[in-house]
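LAB NOTEBOOK - FOLDING QUEUE
OPERATOR: T.R.
BATCH SIZE: 2
PURPOSE: Compare the predicted structure-token outputs for two unrelated chains run back to back under identical settings.
PRIORITY: normal
REVIEWER: second-year student, initials M.K.

ITEM 1
FIELD SEQUENCE / FIELD STRUCTURE:
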Amino acid sequence: MPAPRHQPVAIFRQPRPEEAELLRRRAELAILRAALAVREAELDHLRAQLNSFEGRYIRQVGVLYIQLDEWEDRIAELHNPTPSQPQTLAPEPEPEPEPQQPDPAALDLKALFRAVAKRIHPDRARSAHDERHRTHLMAQANAAFLRDDAAMLHRMLNGYDPATDSGDDLTLAAQLQRITHQIDQSEQHLLALATEIEALAHSEMADLRNRTAHAATHGRDLLAELAARVKGSIGIAMRRYELDLARIRRKQPAFNPAPLLTAELAEPSAVNRAVRFEV
């Protein structure tokens, strides 16, 4: 009877506490980045909706408010005319500063940044996900440019993606420190996104958009009603301007010829006095 063959036994190495913590942190970072993508998409959608509504509001109502302000300014100018400014001598032109020679290192950094931006710009995205990814890369490139990190820009120009760098070539302690910093940044970014979304959702334009949508469910066009009210205010302002202008003109003194007649009568008597003196 042949001897039983032993099945190979897999040997699993128990991860060290640092390695287990690093794995846990990486999973946490992945969850945060997924939440960031969702919140960014939510913010982009809200911005697009508000921008579209704001354009409609400006076309229907905003231009009318501009006209109303112009008539109000005309009325104010009638009652408080701007005094004519005395003519002053033009100041002597200051000597032009001598042009400074640009720093070659700064020029190289700018050229490097432009090359990176041209390669990773969000306008070249092929999808919404690609656009978000390129936006993150642009933020990384801007940060590197502000801290004069030419080495980072060179690496990004050659295809380096900071978002996908796991830092496997670093020590466990350095990897933990790096991923902890990334988690902190992601949490701050999430808070900033939540704050911006909250501010936009409770802005005046969002409130007007919500009221307009609610009025539409009852068959009303709230923007058209607002436009009609502003047009009525423009008509009132125009009429007020006409009345105030007429009232101001009536207060001006009428032409009085008495001074001229007095001067004409005074001249002959002076001549007569001169003749009598000569005689």
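ITEM 2
FIELD SEQUENCE / FIELD STRUCTURE:
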Amino acid sequence: MSRLHLHTERHAMERVGWLRAAVLGANDGIVSTSSLVVGVAAASADHAAILSAGVAGLVAGALSMAAGEYVSVSSQSDTEAADLAREKQELATLPEQELNELAAIYEARGLSPALARQVAEELTAKDALAAHARDELGIVGHLSANPLQAAVTSAITFAIGAVVPLAAVILTPPSLILVVTMVVTTLGLAVLGGLGGWVGGASVLRAGVRVVFWGVLAMAITSAVGFVFGQVV
């Protein structure tokens, strides 16, 4: 007698909920704080002013990221809940039409009409709302919005990312802050991008280059603004 051997697979998509918030938070923490530090340093500010600006940027940025992520993801969660409520109502009042709709979805994906109908009937008998949520609305349990998770993850990772340029400011002589901060930040962005690509199962090199490019561009622009402002003042 042959046996069916099952194995458990873990895919990168299972981590997309917290991974997106983590990468966004850490990247924003590094880029925004380093850009702030570089801009202030380019304006010829003293060491204390640069450090104060960096710390203020860390605190304000972490709180802003948490609030922004919570509001944004809450909106997504509310939309999902509204769609599920509407679908539940339609299943109660229009069961045959909903069954036909589900069968049509499976048929459009390549199943024969008879098999699509059979699959729709069996899934409807087991859990009609779950079937419609997944195959009609695209709502999958482990990918659904989690506002609190996104807010906490973003705030923590923002603070961690912001520590990178702040450490450069604390440990570097005032005359070298501008250069060292840019170098350290670039390396930090490369590591962050590569790590995000690796955890997400994507290309490490491509992810690293993408993050570094936009981070360096942001620092260059703020450095130029700070330099011009410092000359004018």
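REVIEWER COMMENT (ITEM 2): The chain has one domain: 16-227.
FOLLOW-UP: none requested
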